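>> received
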Amino acid sequence: MLSSLAGLEGLISVGGDVKINSSYNLVGLTGLEVLTSIDGDLVIGSNDVLNSLMGIEGLTSIGGDLIINGNDALISLTGLDNIGSIGGKLKISNNSNLSHCDIVPICEYLSNPPGEVLIYSNAIGCENPPQVASNCGIQLACLPFGSYYFLKQSDIDSFDSLYPGCSDLNGLVLIEGFDEITNLLGLQSITSISGSLLIFSNDSLIDLSGLNNLKSISQDFRVEFNPFLQTLSGLQSLDTIGGLFSIDSNPRLLHFKDLNILRHISGDFTIIFNDSLEDLNGITNLSSIGGNLGIGSNDGVLSLGGVEALNTIGGDLYIGSNSQLSDISQLINLSTIGGHLIIMGNDLLSSLSGLDNISPNSINNLLIRGNDNLISCEVQSICDYLSSPTGSIDIDDNAPGCNSQQEVEDACMVGVPEITEEGKIFVYPNPFTTIEYKLTEPTHIQLSIYNHLGEVVKEAVSAYQLPGVHTYEWSAERLSEGMYFVVLRSGDGVSVVKVIKQ
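>> returned
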């Protein structure tokens, strides 16, 4: 086991990184006395008995990051006193006895940070950037590169005094208090976050009041593992999320109240494992999602009420394992997706009504599986996709009527006569402009065109005609894209041909 750095006495410079990690017997840095420069990062982490940085006093420059993390016996940064420049970020964290951080290089760094500042979970005196700055005689404004860690209620309550006038936050914002944080009321001055906002594992938080003036989050917004969070109240000003929006494992969350001005999410929107959520009411103006929409394993969700304005999804649409979900009709205005359409494991869902208006060309692959009561899949988007698929098809283990691809295709042809062997009918080109048919005897004929639902969209010809070959010219321009059936009824019988308008 490494207990000293003896043998490195001649080391003057390092062209890359220096990492001194997980050395359980190392108590000091003696052996690096002549080291003057590190072009990369200096990382000193998880050294259980390291109690001093003495031995590295000759170091004058670090080209990359300075990271001091997880050294429980360390009480001071003395030894780094002669560093003249740090080129990257500064991270001092999880050193439970470290209380003396206000050495000259750290103070100079904080006076004009050239990179991200991460100071948290150390002893009093080195708990956060403003505390260290205060010991240096510096008053911090906003950190130019972030980030902000709120790990205790006092971090929330003292925000305005620690960062006076700071409303636009750069970098990561982490709110992770376990049972330490009860409210966010001290954050009312924040109006924008240019990084991500993570609200994780706050056992005593019941709502988000305090974020009332937050208008935009440039990257991800994740609300996860908050066991007593009941509402998202407090987000009434939020209109833009530049990354993903994840609502995950908040078992007492009831609704999305106060998100009513949110119109666009640039990344994924994921709603999973929220057992008390009954619907999505509160996001009534959300019209577009740049990534995937995933709604899964929410055992209390009954319907998708709240998504009526949703028009566009840039990635997959996944609705899965919502044991009480019986109604997805609120998706009726959804017109395009950019990936897979996946409906699986929703035990009470009986119909896909609501997916009617999705453009079939925007569906890459189709998976409908394991929905025990799903009997009706023959909505227009599904029928049109099956008539001209652009990817894979997997339909099985649902209720009769939607238990296989063939069953759904058959249901899509409801109202169209069965094909018989008598008579001849040709359509060309396909998509069609000319219908040609052959009669073998004088007869009354009826030429009709049906859509996939069996509805007549055109009665082309109804007349008495002589034997021979007949043609009918017409334009299908006004018909929407999809599957159609041209049906000829005559004394020769009934002939049917399937055509696709693209």
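>> The first strand starts at residue 13 and ends at 14.
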